[in-house]
Amino acid sequence: MRMAVVGAGIVGLATGAGFADLGHSVQCVDIDTGKIAQLSRGIIPYHEPGLEAVVVRNVSAGRLTFGHEPSRVLQEAELVFLTVGTPSGDTGEMSLAALWSVIDRFEAWSASETRRIIVIKSTVPVGTAERAEARLRNRLPEHCLVDVVSIPEFMREGCAVRDFFEPTRIVIGSANSEATEKLTQLHQRLPGPIVATDRRSAELAKLAANACLAVKISFANEIAALAEQTGADYPSVAHSMGLDPRIGPHFLSAGLGFGGSCLPKDARALVRMADEAGAPQTLVEAAVRANAMLPLRMVRKLEAALSDPARRKVTLLGLAFKPGTDDMREAPSLRLIAELNRRHPGITITAYDPEANAVARKLLPSTVTVCDSAEEALNGADAAIVVTEWREFRQIKADDFKNWMNRPIIMDGRNALDAAALNAQGVVCIGVGRLPVVPKDSARKTSEAVPKV
């Protein structure tokens, strides 16, 4: 099948390269000419494991090509996927400017050509597919028959290639049975179950899924805070909860909360849309508020362990919103840095991330020194905060922390490190949702839970 993908971000590129790998002829289009130039040279402009190999393989085979003008894609492609960004602000309102820009640029195709299908994979408010179809039909000639379908993407950054080839489910929201059948056949080579439904239900399914995950993560962090105050061990509590098949073990880890381009945006959008529809989502709204408080909670824990932080050097280990990506959109590290600078003007902050350093140097204030290694970032630090649970940080030994740092105090914001082993070797490691075990040679008094230095 001849198809096109408009929007060459991670989702669009993984979708286009994936279908090309299944034998289809695919053109990936993006108005960012610089990005298209890089892709045409085989350069992937972001970190996504496995994606480069799939792209290069299919470019070499002639099944995957790139372009920067979306207006003519319907003249050549039978099927077009829209994977453009739909960002939202603090109020939750999604911006569909990029989507409407593409829709309005599509040019008519020959009367002899077949009916076209446009698939919206971008996360959008409920009713967007219907509006897009009406917009196209009002503008295009009568012979240009088109169906707009919703197939929301459920890809995870860092796992996009795997999620394309091994989807947990494929939701097809359509008002036309022929379009549903064609898209069902297209996806049958993929192993995930196919759910055929209407367009509005498909659109809401995506928003509801991410809002549910946001609620679960915020619940985990609220219980972790309670565990700290009551002397319980949250990892043990989470393990116990996760054994219940009605709950499951996923998304119960406590830490610095959720970030990225999906969960925060989609949760806010659902709250905004629900308010406008007269069905307030108070639970999701509370989850968003709880998530926003987590960086402040971590700063207060740092303040309990370190006297006069404004005169100290603090290192952030990890900047991306999660491991496996260089994406820093709405990353907890950004809120954490802002909170540290707000509460402690003059604090020295260094940071290191195995993949996000280049992105960080463009985003972070000049007061933050982005280093090229964990050792460089930790050198002379009075405390460190594990922000992203990269495997590399788990390999840092206790002696390394003690030799590199001025004071080996680690705030493990992801419970990624072996706190018991580090504490036993003279490193203060304070996790989330558990009482710290202070090394004997670090505590000034046996009554002190956390040494303040």
UniProtKB/TrEMBL annotation:
Q: Name one GO molecular function term.
A: NAD binding
Stored InterPro entries? 6-PGluconate_DH-like_C_sf (IPR008927), NAD(P)-bd_dom_sf (IPR036291), UDP-Glc/GDP-Man (IPR017476), UDP-Glc/GDP-Man_DH_C (IPR014027), UDP-Glc/GDP-Man_DH_C_sf (IPR036220), UDP-Glc/GDP-Man_DH_dimer (IPR014026), UDP-Glc/GDP-Man_DH_N (IPR001732), UDPglc_DH_bac (IPR028357)
Keywords in alphabetical order: NAD, Oxidoreductase
Q: Name one GO biological process term.
A: polysaccharide biosynthetic process
- Is DNA repair tagged as a keyword? no
Q: Tell me which stretches of the chain form a coiled coil.
A: none
State the reactions this protein catalyses. Answer: UDP-alpha-D-glucose + 2 NAD(+) + H2O = UDP-alpha-D-glucuronate + 2 NADH + 3 H(+)
The annotated pathway is:
Nucleotide-sugar biosynthesis; UDP-alpha-D-glucuronate biosynthesis; UDP-alpha-D-glucuronate from UDP-alpha-D-glucose: step 1/1
Per UniProt, NAD(+) binds at 30, 35, 86, 123, 157, 265, 329
Q: Where is the UDP-glucose/GDP-mannose dehydrogenase C-terminal domain?
A: 315-419
Q: Which residues form the active site?
A: 262
| Residues that bind substrate | 154-157, 206, 251-255, 259, 322
Enzyme Commission number: 1.1.1.22
- What family does the entry list? Belongs to the UDP-glucose/GDP-mannose dehydrogenase family.
Q: Which PANTHER family match?
A: UDP-GLUCOSE 6-DEHYDROGENASE TUAD
Q: Quote the protein name from its UniProt record.
A: UDP-glucose 6-dehydrogenase
